[in-house]
Design a protein that fits this description.
Blueprint: H1 4-18, E1 23-28, E2 48-54, E3 57-62, E4 66-71, E5 76-82, E6 91-97, E7 101-107, E8 113-118, H2 140-147, H3 154-158, H4 169-179, H5 192-217, E9 250-254, E10 257-261
Antiparallel strand pairs: 1-6, 2-3, 3-4, 4-8, 5-7, 6-7, 9-10
The protein binds zinc ion.
Length: about 270
């Protein structure tokens, strides 16, 4: 599932290309992906504006005050193409622009969700109103204050979208590894320095991942690696050596969610 670094790379790629580019045609192969009353075809003739992100949602402003909102969920993938480029398998939403480009969206499991709503209607989007502040918009003090209200395990707290929006299963593992905090460590037992360390590790991981993902999307958004995850240091790297200490990465799978960590760098009994 795309998380902040992935979606930021997509946002950065799309922003200059969508801005001021009139929509000339839309094509939706699976209408149920569009969860709003307004259908995408009402975008034809309109110009798209700035692209922003909140948590795991991408939002594109429309020149009439509406916003086009997408949550790509597990398998949503974007492709910036020209009309003559071969369509990728599973392409199910397409926007054609006046400059001859197309924004195509494929979704193998068709779990992604699209909405076209007035800017004041964002709360109609499921889960939107309960979203906490975006992780990139949160200051260190806000992070610390929010953390005080949580007593659960570090991984669960970092992926709790009501506390902090935009971190998922993969990057929570990376952040905890960077911060040397065990995923099952209860956040209530972390001292202030460790809490600050968690916040700083989050930014360190995002800063580290940014250029890698920007390079990954530079050829037209479509990811060569379906999971966008080859570069990660611990997530889905079970039994590979920890890049810091060389000990084998440990994996735990719980209700199909994999958690990976280094028991040497991230001991539980600190
Ligand atoms: Zn290690």
């Amino acid at each position: 599932m795309p998380e902040i670094p992935d979606l930021e790379a997509i946002r950065g790629f799309l922003a200059p290309r969508l801005q001021g580019n009139p929509v000339v045609r839309t094509d939706v192969r699976y209408p149920w992906l569009i969860r709003s009353e307004d259908k995408l075809e009402t975008l034809v003739g309109h110009v798209l504006g700035p692209v922003r992100r909140h948590g795991k949602f991408l939002l594109v402003a429309v020149d009439d005050g509406r916003e086009l909102v997408v949550n790509p969920m597990l398998t949503g993938r974007f492709h910036w193409a020209t009309a003559s480029d071969r369509k990728r398998p599973g392409t199910c939403v397409l926007f054609a622009f006046e400059d001859g480009h197309e924004l195509r969206y494929s979704d193998a499991r068709r779990m992604g969700r699209w909405y076209l709503v007035g800017a004041s209607q964002l709360d109609l989007i499921p889960q939107w109103s309960s979203l906490g502040p975006d992780a990139l918009a949160m200051t260190e003090d806000e992070f610390l204050a929010g953390l005080k209200r949580h007593r659960g395990q570090a991984k669960n707290v970092l992926t709790n979208q009501e506390f902090i929006a935009g971190i998922g299963n993969a990057y929570s593992d990376e952040i905890l590894w960077e911060a040397r905090v065990h995923p099952h460590r209860r956040v209530a037992t972390l001292d202030e320095e460790q809490r600050r360390g968690l916040y700083r590790a989050m930014h360190a991981v995002f800063d580290w991942a940014r250029p890698i993902l920007e390079a990954e999307v530079a050829e037209g958004l479509y990811q060569r690696n379906e999971e966008w995850r080859d570069h990660l240091r611990v997530h889905r790297k079970a039994d590979e050596p920890c890049p810091r200490c060389g000990a084998p990465i440990k994996a735990q799978v719980q209700s199909s969610r994999e958690t990976d960590y280094c028991l040497t760098c991230q001991p539980l009994d600190l």
